[in-house]
Design goal:
Helicase, Ruva Protein, domain 3; homodimer; alpha/beta; three-stranded antiparallel sheet
């Protein structure tokens, strides 16, 4: 079975770790969000790809969900002593080695796809990890605070400002001219199941879908497409999706996100679409038991416990998602 | 009193730490060798400047003489796990922060002089530390081993190959077109004393003197010029100068190095010079008591214990050098 999953960072990584347990023989291709990527001190950092690689490869700090296990912070301490660089960003010593290898290979002319494969050669994540694009794409958040209205890099909004200023808009710089990375569209086209793990619908799944060609490839697949809600009972399972959903006019709820993705069958029932209509994505939408009353036109909604407290819990959620995929198979 | 010292790494740094004790009110300008500098994983490393800065600023690993105190090696461990990068080079975590700051500032367009001043703002080395040049200069060693005759970067020769292959020649790439860094010639011209600490005569003092203008500035100063022998009883105090002196046809001895630098008075006694003659450098040459019989035409040779076993010993050597400078004052 060929499974393709779009993926942000922590939520997706934990779900996918469960998926590997739930479907040990499946060929899993993970299309990772790269719009969070940032250059810090000349180092190219890919937070979501690294979280996926470390989590699936057994090198993650499992308590915080990001960064390396057995991490130390001596470089960061020294940078602080120099009063230089982004003190707000968690550049651990071990993690930094990954950025050094990535930056050095990118500078040598390799693509992010090739670099990611090289890094995964060490980590053996048990899935093919592809960046959504080899082109440079950056999510900027338009905020409004005491300094007025301005745009900041997503990492600055998320990590330095802790998503506290109101997000007025989300601008994915460079995405219109970007291309899906090699292998991405083929993987989607050949998938037996496409999964949307519980990632941020705006700055993770949303940015992947914004790469020209990816959304259309998913709406066109014969394979069932199943999403797992990142929202339980009106709040994000983790992260701060509730800070960003309002900026794109989506309610922070399982039903809100489900309808934002849209049901694939719904449009047929609703009749003709205008040109702006992008078509729904979901055949199935998995929500938590507390959201069992959710409905998404054109998709089958199923409920079950969605808290990924540990790997078996994540595996159980993955099994539900695969079972829903079988049920909705077109 | 304005003291100018040319300086390589460990030997010079320890001597200068003693000099600060011996002459606490002196204005010391250190002209550091940059021909050892190397780019590793995209990071610009200046081993001699860093050794000087860390030693004088209290951040050195005093046992090994180079690198940071309280150092950890997690980045290096990770690079090894990726099987990537120069495993032979000692890139410590804390040290790496210095290279990140340096590289980032150089990339932003600052000169090495400016970057060194910025780094020293933290370390407060108690001396003005100037690179010999802002231009890129690299010492390559021509070696001959089982792989044939070839040139390798000095760091590769010194650190990776441990100076084992015979050095056939020393090529200082880029030095002919280099310029002394801002402040270097002025500092020499205004000096009350010029010192040549016990550094490698070939790849430390030799490369500084090879920057067009520096040697001429020293031979022209009114101030006394005093050197301290890096060779005691036919062997380098530390380092591997004995591996490189033969490549430039100089005997590994206090008298060999002294005569290589040359006495400033000697030439007058010897009469006319041809155009190749570059003029002697030394008014005074301080050698170890075991080398008390050394003579350098045109320079006054004085003997004393030269083993820098600790800071007081280094201070005592510095006092001898300053006292010799007074004695030879022209």
């Amino acid at each position: 079975m060929r499974i393709v999953a779009l993926a942000g960072g922590i939520g997706a990584a934990r779900f996918l770790r469960g998926l590997k347990v739930a479907a040990p023989t499946a060929e899993i291709t993970v299309i990772g969000n790269t719009a969070d990527d940032i250059t810090l001190l000349g180092l190219r950092v890919s937070p979501d790809l690294d979280t996926l690689m470390y989590t699936l490869g057994g090198g993650i700090d499992d308590t915080q969900g990001w960064g390396r296990d057995r991490e130390s912070w001596h470089v960061k301490e020294e940078l602080a002593a120099y009063d230089y660089g982004p003190s707000w960003y968690g550049l651990g010593d071990r993690d930094l080695a990954t950025h050094l290898v990535r930056t050095s290979l990118l500078d040598a002319g390799y693509s992010l796809t090739e670099v990611t494969a090289a890094l995964c050669h060490r980590w053996q994540p048990g899935a093919r990890l592809l960046p959504m694009s080899d082109d440079r794409i950056e999510t900027h958040i338009v905020i409004e605070d005491t300094q007025g209205r301005r745009a900041v890099h997503f990492q600055e909004y998320w990590v330095r400002l802790r998503a506290e200023p109101a997000a007025r808009d989300v601008v994915v710089v460079g995405v219109e001219d970007a291309h899906p990375a090699p292998g991405v569209l083929d993987a989607i086209g050949q998938a037996d199941v496409v999964l949307l793990p519980p990632s941020n619908p705006v700055v993770s799944i949303g940015t992947i879908l914004a790469v020209p060609g990816i959304r259309a490839a998913i709406t066109a697949v014969d394979a069932p497409v199943v999403g797992v809600s990142p929202i339980i009972g009106g709040a994000p399972v983790r992260g701060m999706a509730d800070k960003l959903l309002p900026a794109i006019g989506v309610e922070t709820s399982a039903v809100g996100v489900g309808r934002h993705y849209g049901g694939r069958g719904g449009h047929d029932e609703q009749g003709a679409h205008d040109e702006q209509d992008r078509g729904g994505l979901l055949d199935g939408w998995l929500v938590d038991t507390v959201d069992a009353d959710a409905t998404v036109p054109g998709a089958i909604v199923q409920a079950g416990p969605l808290l990924m407290t540990d790997v078996p819990a994540a595996a159980s959620i993955a099994r539900q998602a695969l079972s829903l995929a079988s049920a909705v198979r077109r």
